[in-house]
From TrEMBL, chains A, B:
Gene3D superfamilies: 1.20.1050.10, Glutaredoxin. It comes from the Bacteria. This is Glutathione S-transferase family protein. Residues 7-89 form the GST N-terminal domain. Residues 91-213 form the GST C-terminal domain. Belongs to the GST superfamily.
Length: 213, 213
């Protein structure tokens, strides 16, 4: 694959982030070499003046560095890596439908399921602000709604779009498979559980790096 | 353009929604005919059993209907309509960078700027729940951050990606140009204001339908 990427690819990431793991997993599935530059988001390392000026003015990771250019937003980086591969469907409707699930992931899934994991498993409930604590029930309900929608969708199919794995599956897998760290119950979502197993069985699959330091 | 779309295209929408307007505007810029099916989100018409079963199990508009298939998520519908046109850059990095701004729009921009417009201009502050009122300051700050980032990005370029208008501009335009309805001040963001004028001057541009009933 390397000849398709004349520029060095560097992932600016925190290994505890599911958004970063998406990109690692896609690179592994495709056999694409990826250099890693780690940051500790808990120490504000993505808010330093250097990071904001040189890597991402939005102060967030992951950022995929392609030569001397920087690409923020995890799902945009997934798209960049996978263009021209079987992880993006050939069919026009399916390709847009894949993006549909990736936008769903960033709008309905990640702000609820990833945020509760971050708050409960990393920040710790005792350290949350009063306003954050007040938002937990709404995020819990919205996260359950997202999981229910996924479970219903997977009742009649093995993958989110078309007949094979696509970026939609990888984007949704990243925070779904660790949702229990945010106190979401997965075992009642049997279609989701079987799909998680399917993703983990893909040739080239790599697990998420250890969540603990 | 019609020969590129053998199936009838129908937009399921509420004309007050900026997410729906994105799709109308792209169809207008491309000269693509689009049938319209209107719903009133204030009356819960996108939560009816029929809508959930037949149009979008997620209970949201817009949905682009392509023949007998349904495509939710505004930015996925934008992608579907614009594939193969000049609204999607040819360059691989630019294409991913366009998606980067579209994911930014759905993650950092819409949940703050569109939500405050909806709460303040449509629901009315007096009818908000206590929890919604408590979220206003955080959404105000996050929305201002998004506008500041856009203004900084536009300081050195006319369009978000590459040298010409792309889906990134249309996606960000929809709720930015009506942000004042959510009590965001635009006139201090001079680069944003000039870019709004540029979008409004595009050949084929159509304004957002009247916000009032």
């Amino acid at each position: 694959m390397t000849d398709e990427h004349p520029h060095q690819l560097t992932l600016h990431e925190d290994p505890r982030s599911g958004n970063c793991y998406k990109i690692r997993l896609i690179a592994a599935l495709l056999g694409t070499p990826l250099a890693i530059r780690e940051y500790d988001i808990m120490r504000g390392e993505t808010r330093s003046p250097e990071f904001l000026a040189n890597v991402n003015a939005n102060g967030r990771i992951p950022v995929l560095q392609i030569g001397d250019r920087f690409l923020p937003e995890s799902n945009a980086a997934c798209w960049y890596l996978a263009e021209g591969t079987a992880l993006i469907p050939q069919d026009r409707f399916d390709r847009a439908d894949m993006l549909r699930w990736m936008f769903f992931e960033q709008y309905n899934h990640e702000p609820n399921i990833a945020t509760l994991r971050f708050w409960l498993a990393f920040v710790g409930e005792a350290h949350l602000s009063e306003q954050q604590r007040a938002m937990i029930p709404a995020k819990r309900m919205a996260g359950e709604d997202a999981l229910a929608l996924m479970d219903e969708h997977l009742a009649t199919r093995e993958w989110f779009v078309g007949g094979t794995v696509s970026l939609a599956d990888i984007a949704l897998y990243a925070y779904t498979h660790v949702a229990e760290a945010g106190c979401f119950r997965l075992r009642d979502r049997s279609n989701v559980c079987r799909w998680l197993d399917r993703v983990a069985a893909l040739p080239g699959y790599v697990p998420m790096p250890q969540a603990e330091d």
